[in-house]
Specification:
Layout lengths: L15 H4 L12 E3 L2 E4 L3 H12 L4 E4 L15 E2 L8 H21 L1 H11 L11 E5 L2 H15 L6 E3 L1 H8 L6 E5 L3 E2 L2 H14 L3 E3 L6 E5 L2 E5 L4 E4 L1 E4 L17 E3 L1 E6 L4 H4 L8 E4 L5 E6 L3 E7 L1 E2 L5 E2 L1 H11 L8 E6 L2 E3 L6 E6 L2 E5 L5 H16 L20 H25 L2
Parallel strand pairs: 1-12, 2-3, 2-13, 3-9, 5-16, 13-24
Antiparallel strand pairs: 4-8, 5-7, 6-7, 10-11, 11-12, 14-22, 15-18, 15-21, 16-17, 17-18, 19-20, 23-24
Helix pairs in contact: 2-7, 2-10, 4-10
Length: 437
């Protein structure tokens, strides 16, 4: 068992903790140390930045309030799906302008390939497979939008394909969708194993990681940054903040710039061959086009992971599993009566424009967050890009535009009303799937 993943805030242990290699519990920082770079957050973003910097000979210290992958990186659905969600290429070009549109489009379309190449380079054992991503379409309107989107993305080399009902049923094992989109570059990883592998590779190259070391204060003194924890501090030239959905008030206004949401997942017991082989027989990852999506994937050992949108309860725990089970049985009736052995959730960050945000609020301070459900792939890109900035790349030459930290309008109200909004979106999804238009 990985000590750092024994349970989350809801008391539910991720399935990944039972199938990842034994993890190392990293000791808390208890002294004053010097480093070139301090990284706050030991998830995908922070670890990727640390590894990139270490390869360049940079001294790096990583601090995390929990430990490696204690947050969303170790609790995600593990789908490595490329592309930016929600926005069409035309919308992106209007928002970003030609230069950043071209850079960010290239980075996002190549993001899954980048992760799988990273895994290959460092020989990380994380059950990596790039069998493609199947996005199934819940009504005719979604199909029309998908056809337009596929044509637009393919003009930039996406390689996507729209498929009809017969093929979508064959590839998914579900009969409730009439069409879908196949993206060959998509795939899956065991996310905790990937995180632990990144951490091991980084440590082998000199990176120092401290768990149980929440940063309580961040100050700039005499041209250096001082990151203070309860028992120690790190003095460095640069600080990278990589906290995403677990962002607090350490950086002014940063926690108000994103909306934290709570994806949840469950996993089945090992299923008989004849049952599991009906579902995703070619190993695709799957998600759908509803407002409140589902996503799923097969696992070694004949298990199926099924995920969707959860909710934070009044007591701080995470709910939404009853709906998730019902939805799984609706999409895959083969699953009726099976036992779900694990359930868990995490916290991700949604931005107002549905784009990842890169900030440089002060000299030597970088922040990257807001992956909007594409975190496994895009967080690695962000980590690399921030490392490139530390190593001297000009801000206006990066793949992401650097922006000011701004409050998300009505963020507090949105958080309070998120449950009501999700229930309404589920109702609209229900009507659309019934009507099919």
């Amino acid at each position: 068992m990985n000590i750092q993943m024994t349970a989350n805030a809801a008391g539910f242990k991720p399935f990944w903790a039972d199938t990842a290699p034994e993890g190392t519990l990293h000791p808390p920082l208890i002294e004053r140390v010097e480093s070139d770079v301090t990284i706050i957050g030991a998830g995908f973003t922070g670890l990727r930045a640390a590894l990139f910097l270490a390869e360049a000979g940079t001294r790096v210290t990583v601090l995390d309030a929990g430990d490696v992958a204690y947050g969303a990186s170790g609790r995600s659905g593990g789908q490595v799906n490329p592309m930016l969600p929600f926005n069409t290429p035309s919308n992106l070009q209007k928002m970003l302008g030609t230069t950043y549109f071209e850079r960010l489009t290239e980075a996002s379309l190549n993001s899954a390939d980048e992760v799988f190449e990273l895994i290959k380079t460092y020989q990380i054992d994380c059950q990596a497979r790039q069998n493609g991503w199947l996005r199934v379409l819940h009504n005719a309107r979604a199909r029309r939008q998908a056809e337009e989107g596929v044509a637009a993305w393919n003009a930039h080399g996406a390689g996507m394909e729209v498929i009809g009902q017969e093929e979508v049923t064959r590839l998914s094992g579900s009969q409730v969708y009439s069409a879908g989109v196949v993206t060959p570059r998509g795939g899956a990883v065991q996310p905790l194993s990937l995180s632990l592998g990144l951490a091991q590779a980084a440590k082998q190259r000199g990176v120092v990681i401290h768990g149980g070391s929440a940063v309580t204060a961040l100050d700039r003194q005499e041209g250096k940054w001082i990151a203070k924890t309860a028992l120690g501090q790190v003095r460095s030239d640069w600080v990278i903040v990589a906290t995403n959905g677990y962002t607090d008030r350490l950086i002014p206004k940063l926690d108000k710039s994103v909306l934290p949401v709570h994806p949840v997942q469950m996993v089945t017991q090992p299923l008989p061959d004849d049952l599991i082989n009906e579902i995703l027989p070619e190993g695709h990852t799957i998600s759908d086009s509803r407002r409140v999506i589902m996503y799923a994937r097969r696992e070694p050992g004949n298990r199926l992971v099924y995920g969707g949108h959860g909710k934070e309860l009044a007591d701080g725990q995470i709910g939404g599993f009853k709906w998730l089970k019902q939805d799984a049985e609706r999409v895959f009736p083969q699953l009726k009566g099976v036992t779900w052995t694990h359930r868990w959730g995490g916290r991700i960050a949604i931005t107002e424009d549905h784009l990842p945000h890169l900030h440089e609020p002060q000299k030597g301070l970088l922040v990257g967050l807001g992956y909007n459900g594409r975190g496994v792939a895009m967080s690695h890109v962000m980590g690399r890009v921030m490392a490139e900035r530390v190593l001297g790349k000009a801000a206006d030459a990066l793949a992401f535009p650097t922006s000011a930290i701004r409050d998300m309008p009505f963020q507090t109200v949105q958080r309070m009303g998120l449950g009501t909004v999700v229930r309404f979106m589920k109702f609209l999804d229900y009507l659309e799937t019934r009507v099919g238009r």
